[in-house]
Structures are given as structure tokens and as C-alpha cells.
Amino acid sequence: MDIVEIKSFLAVIEFRSFTLAAKRVHITQSAMSKRIQKMENELGVRLFIVEGSKITLTEAASHFVPYARQMLAAYNSALKSFKDDAQMLQHHIVVGATVFVSHYILPSFLSYLKTEESSLIIHIRTMAEHDIEDYLNRGTVDLVISPERDLPSKIIATQLWQEKYYYVANKSHELSQINRVLSLSDFVNYPAIFTQKSGVIRDKVERAFDESQLNLNVSLEISTLDAIKSLVEFNLGWSVLPSKLISDQLNVLNVDTTDIILNFNVFYLKKRMEERAITNFLHIFNKWQNQNSTDEKAS
């Protein structure tokens, strides 16, 4: 038997009525009868004699009452203790993150987390941005940090920060040798290196080329920004990268086009928005961001 059945039994004891007891625990009279019958089957005794509207306790029921009250009291005590101690208990959370976030954002955050008196234990799962909805629905991850993406309304998306992306090429690349502001038309004859289609950055760049009625000449597709960076360093093409990945071997190209700004969001299911692990994570992450912002202004 479970605590729900114990509560139902004690409600019948209190009201001497299946109907009133059912109302007390917010179920139908039929459901109440089934709960009592289940208890009787488990205990192997009859608990109540029903004669019309009159209910009489059997000797077995009277004998069981103090035990039922002890069980309910123990349950309530354990529940209260757990709630009181919840702040001290460890809260595990699985954070899904794209490769860029896993490699260049979360290490600094995890280092900050060690300085906080937090009960939060974070597990990182690197994933592709197009898997967000599936991973959240399956419970594979608790939340995801990823570039902005259109998702169903049952998933909450909150912006965490923005990254500016730059057109880059090897310093010896032909584009790096042009001593003027470049236009997108200057790029069409040179091979580009990007992630596969449906990546947010590639979509933004392709849209810019389409609006200028130009073709984006993608010669290599590869899954991670780190790999793209390496290929550009080897002068195999140009690409678009965030500042954190721009090395001394690369040249930021001056291009007459709209800045590429990418929002990075945290995604989680709306039905889980009040879970302690998620609210704790967001609180600490925001504190870390505010500290970083303060440090950058001070420097």
C-alpha cells in the first residue's frame, strides 16, 4: 500500500463516509472504494462494514488505525525534513551545449562555480543545435545552451549573451591582400568553409549572399568551429568565426556588410521552469556573467 491509500483510509475513519472521505481527498466515491478494497486485499482482512449509508469499523480497522497514523506522521516528517534540507542537498543537472559553448564558454563558468558555495553538480553533454527539441523532450538533458533557434512554445528560450562573428582568412590569403573595404562580391571566387546546412551562422551568411544575389562558394563542410579554424589557418578557404577562435594566423577582413551577431540562448521545457536545479543554474550563470561584465569594464 502507498501513502495515498493510507490517507484515504484515515479520511474514511474521520468522516465515517466514503462519499465525504472521497471529497476530502478529491477523488470519486468509486475510486475511494477501490483504494479501500486494495488495502483489504493486501492486508487480508475486511476494514469496513457498509450498511446503506452507515459504515462500521471492523476490529481489524481499529487495530490498524494507530499504525496508519504513524505511517502518515512519518511521511509528513520526512517530507518536511527533505524540504528544509533541500538547499543543502546536491542538485545534479545535465546541460546540453554546442561544441563552441562546451569548449569556450562553460570551462570558465565551471571554474567560477567552484568558488560558489553551491550544491549544483553539472554534467555537460556536447550536442548539435538541431537536436535541442528531441533531447529536452526525451529528458536526455535538463537544459541546453545553444545559438538561437525557433522551437515550439512548450520550450522556453531566454537570451544569455551575444557573440559577434567576423569574416576571416589566413593572413596570406588573397582576400587579406586587398587594401580596401571588401564587398560580398569579392568572396564569390574564393572557397568558403562552413558547417553543414541548417547551422545558424551559415544560414545568416547564405541569407546575406542571397540578398545580394550572390552564390556562397562553399568548398568544405565540417561539423565544428575548431575544425573550420584549423582549415582556414592552413589557407584552404575563408570563413566566419567568433573572436574567441581568431588566432594570430588569421586576419579579420573589413567587409561592407551588416555585422553578424548571434544570440546564445538557454532552452528548457516550460513545465520544468520552477525546478530547483534549473533555477539555481540560471541564477549562478547570471551572477558569473555579471561578474565577467564588471571585470571587463574595470580592465
UniProtKB/TrEMBL annotation:
Family of the protein in this entry: Belongs to the LysR transcriptional regulatory family.
GO molecular function ontology, one term from the record: DNA-binding transcription factor activity
Protein name (database record): LysR family transcriptional regulator
Pfam family, one: HTH_1
Keyword annotations from UniProtKB, A to Z: DNA-binding, Transcription, Transcription regulation
Source species of the chain: Legionella cincinnatiensis
Domain HTH lysR-type: 1-58
Gene that specifies this protein: cynR_2
InterPro entries the record matches: LysR_HTH_N, LysR_subst-bd, WH-like_DNA-bd_sf, WH_DNA-bd_sf
